[in-house]
Design a protein that fits this description.
heterodimer, A: mainly alpha, ABC transporter involved in vitamin B12 uptake, BtuC, two-stranded antiparallel sheet, about 75% helix, B: mainly alpha, two-stranded antiparallel ribbon, disordered N terminus
Chain lengths: ~325, ~350
């Protein structure tokens, strides 16, 4: 960070000022003039929180995608289907057992197993053939999407969180001050905060696993030079299968989260595939911190867009992607 | 001397050139010309017309993918853009937006704007390579789809434009089955010829060089980026013509036309046919159209219900790409090669 500040003093200053303004907007009680210009503080804070929590969901989907791509150079365009499958599996697991928490391990295992099948039956047969992998996974996603439509119908499925998670939670952010001088605190859905915290935990755990463990060391070495790693005697195929299963399992978990947050329906697979594509393009392919940054940016852009310019909210996210591509084709945190 | 000699050489030249056209082309050309004599209106308008149109759009993808090595999923967006431009500047039922300009301004303008749009997209997409290109063009196609769906001032949002009709030129109704058949066939053949010609022209050869080894081409002094962007511009003309014809065929254009599903359909068509030769795009389109038209009947006959069409297409696509990355053309080449090989010695016969 200090290196960045000394190298790019102007950018560092701009970022610092922006962060300060943001902090002020979050914590201060807004003067009337500001509320006249951009609306009530409650709306702003809600958009901010929704954006951050949506970013958490995007991170869960995109981190698996970027991990798989970074290590194996496999472009898995069936990733959205894995997400959707996870959502359906989680829904039925939660319905059958009555435990919401049980939906997560079940979705992780089932979708992870599906990922292993993909890796062994498809990707291993066409290693290094990028275009063919892409085409085959597009074909798989078409087939799987139709099979799921066949099996589960076109209805919306909603996974209900348990009692202790439903309902709002009081936060310590002041949204306004009543005429009596009493501050009004913001309320926010408990389940979203818990899920966001969980995705932060997953992200930190992934970072620790990648940077502090032996397997993580092997994965990082594999990202840098796959052939050299296998020449040193590492059993790279097992690492590949493991990473693929983990990445797919993460997509499955994200499906459960998405089913709780929003809902699960046909078409969501393409939406989340596109979201994770944009996230990893913006953040940088194969970089976990990049996926986190990209997910946060895209989540915020989507939410703020839908609040402040509702017509073009979706276009805004693509605009970010275009700008990043034009000035930094490898992504914000990607390596050239 | 030259002046006296030249007519003679041109006739022999012509004769030699005509003789060098493979017999398959003659058969195919005559067949295409006489189809209206015995085919029904439905076959001409719906099946053949649609085949030529989808073939044109897939041809633009084949040109980029096969000769340029850039698989672009944005070709349907370019086609749709051209269709939208014709609807906006020309005539449609949405009189509040459509300008109603004459066709000889509208069509060149639509194609010109499409080329500009595609050049901008291409300039962005060529900053990336291989897989990234697919992802970025997919994202751009999705952005265009969402934009058209949400913009009401220019693109009329979810509804799009209807009653977008071809001009009544020479007193012919160009949406009549025969006229439309010949119209689409003319453009399909022109597009096919243009792609074949460009692939052998210096530009096309340089483009194939860029595909095979961009660094070497750059070292030889070719501007790699410019060649790639120019390929996008050229492909956009073909896609744009296809898009205008598509709009006329269905007499409407709406966000559904440029959706992600249709973008993937174009990729499916190009890949099923094969990216090696321009004819692949039309073979793929023909198969796709046949499937799309008759799959429902086949599925119902099999007792599966008509809505499983997507499954059939997906399975077919999956099987073809799994076993032959070069599509049906690749399978054909393999078959030819295996027939030429001697089964005992393994050598060439």
């Amino acid at each position: 960070m200090r290196l960045f500040a000394t190298r790019h003093p102007v950018w560092a200053a701009i970022i610092a000022v922006a962060a300060a303004i943001l902090l002020w907007m979050i914590f201060a009680v807004w003067p009337d003039g500001l509320e006249d210009v951009i609306g009530r503080k409650k709306v702003f804070l809600n958009a901010l929180f929704n954006g951050i929590t949506l970013g958490g969901l995007y991170f869960l989907v995109a981190s698996g995608f970027t991990l798989i791509f970074g290590l194996m150079r496999n472009v898995n365009l069936a990733h959205g289907s894995l997400y959707l499958l996870g959502g359906y599996v989680g829904y039925f697991a939660a319905e059958a057992t009555g435990y919401w928490l049980l939906a997560f391990p079940v979705a992780f295992v089932v979708v992870g197993f599906f990922g292993i099948l993909l890796q062994v039956l498809v990707f291993r047969r066409m290693e290094g053939e990028d275009l063919r992998q892409t085409l085959v996974t597009i074909g798989i996603s078409i087939v799987v999407a139709d099979l799921m439509l066949w099996g589960f119908g076109g209805d919306f499925y909603n996974i209900t969180p348990p009692q202790w998670l439903s309902g709002p939670m009081d936060t310590f952010f002041v949204t306004a001050v009543k005429s009596s001088g009493e501050p009004v605190f913001m309320k926010y859905p408990m389940v979203r905060i818990v899920i966001f915290a969980a995705s932060v935990v997953v992200g930190v755990a992934m970072w620790l696993a990648l940077n502090k463990t032996r397997i993580g060391m092997m994965i990082r070495a594999g990202v840098d030079d796959r052939d050299m790693l296998s020449a040193t005697g590492a059993r790279i195929q097992i690492v590949f299968v493991g990473v693929f299963a983990f990445g797919a399992g993460l997509a499955g978990i994200a499906g459960v989260v998405g089913g709780t947050f929003q809902s699960i329906a046909p078409g969501e697979d393409i939406r989340f595939l596109l979201a994770s594509l944009v996230v990893v393009i913006v953040g940088g392919m194969g970089s976990i911190p990049g996926a986190a940054l990209g997910a946060l940016l895209i989540g915020l852009a989507e939410q703020f867009g839908s609040v402040y310019f509702p017509t073009y909210a979706v276009v805004l996210t693509f605009l970010i992607m275009v700008v990043v591509l034009a000035f930094r084709p490898q992504g914000l945190l990607g390596r050239a | 001397m030259v002046a006296i000699d030249s007519p003679r050489t041109t006739t022999t030249d012509m004769r030699r050139r005509i003789a060098s056209v493979p017999p398959v082309y003659w058969v195919l050309g005559i067949l295409l010309l006489i189809i209206p004599a015995f085919a029904s209106d439905f076959v001409m308008f719906q099946i053949m017309g649609w085949t030529f149109i989808l073939g044109l759009i897939a041809l633009s993808l084949m040109f980029l993918g096969g000769y340029g090595g850039m698989v672009s999923l944005a070709q349907m967006a370019f086609a749709g853009f051209a269709g939208y431009m014709v609807a906006i500047f020309g005539d449609s039922a949405i009189s509040g937006i459509s300008q109603g300009w004459p066709w000889w301004i509208v069509i060149p303008l639509a194609l010109f704007l499409t080329v500009i749009f595609a050049t901008a997209v291409g300039w962005l997409a060529v900053r990336t390579e291989g897989i990234y290109t697919i992802m970025i063009t997919l994202a751009i196609a999705a952005a265009f789809f969402y934009f058209t769906r949400q913009n009401y001032e220019l693109f009329n949002g979810f509804q799009g434009f209807n009653s977008v009709l071809p001009p009544e030129l020479f007193g012919i109704d160009w949406r009549g089955p025969e006229a439309f058949y010949y119209l689409t066939m003319f453009w399909a053949v022109t597009g096919f010829g243009a792609v074949l010609y460009v692939s052998r022209a210096p530009f096309g050869l340089a483009l194939q060089g860029v595909r095979d080894n961009p660094r070497r081409m750059a070292a030889l002094g070719y501007n790699v980026t410019a060649h790639r962007v120019a390929a996008y511009a050229f492909a956009a003309v073909i896609a744009g013509i296809g898009g205008i014809l598509l709009t006329w065929q269905s007499a409407q254009i709406s966000p559904g036309t440029v959706g992600i599903q249709s973008a993937i359909d174009i990729l499916v068509i190009a890949v099923i046919g094969g990216l090696r030769h321009p004819i692949g795009a039309f073979i793929g389109a023909f198969i796709f159209v046949l499937l799309k038209t008759f799959a429902v009947d086949v599925l119902i006959a099999l007792g599966l219900g008509g809505e499983r069409f997507q499954l059939l297409i997906g399975m077919g696509f999956l099987i073809i790409v799994f076993f032959s990355p070069d599509g049906l053309l690749g399978l054909w080449e393999k078959l030819k090669a295996s027939r030429r090989r001697d089964p005992l010695t393994g050598g060439q016969r």
